[in-house]
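Here is an idea for our session: we take a single protein and study its fold together. Start from the sequence, derive the backbone structure tokens from it, and show both lines together. Once you have written the record down, we can walk along the chain together:
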Amino acid sequence: MTMPFYVAPEQIMKDRADYARKGIARGRSLAAVAFDGGIVMAAENPGARLKKISEIYDRIAFAGVGRYNEFDALRIAGIRHADVQGYQFSRDDVEARSLANAYAKMLGNTFTHEMKPMEVEILVAEVGADPDGDQLFKVIFDGQLSQDERFSVLGGDTETIGSRLEAALDLDAPPSDLATSLRAAVGALAGDDRTLTADDLEVAVLERGEDRRHFRRIEDDDLAALLG
């Protein structure tokens, strides 16, 4: 009689986590930095034909790294979630926190119950009326949710990039302007042995202000001018 094949649950979870991490590491990284005027997000994305950074709702942006078709499906689900929430209640009731919790549940269920986990890390960012109201929520492949302060890094070598950002930023106070924040983020992504130009990057900002919508892409000459 053939004995049934058995694998310990701990080994299954470890194998799934290793598989997802390897897939994410093959992609390029992304960094977000909060500053006095809002939140800037920069991704290494040459050509930027497939967008890693997108608007979700009035004050909320989405960023993803890893397998594009998977995090783009999550982006679309987030837009639908936010639209329903805003329609049923009010636009002010749509929050990054509830959206991040919904993403954490989706990714956690997939990681636990499906054969293949999603090879993604995502960021849900919300700009507040003042810097203290800015929020950065990071959700990884197994549904773990964390809230970052001042900056967030996704994909690739997050520890090394995060260390570079810490060294470049004064963590006791956010940078005062967009250019300083963007240069810190791009410098951390590039490291000491590379230079990233405007053509290598996808950049967007959630700008603090009175307008209803706060998301704006920064491209071409405007991006080159900010990079100096």
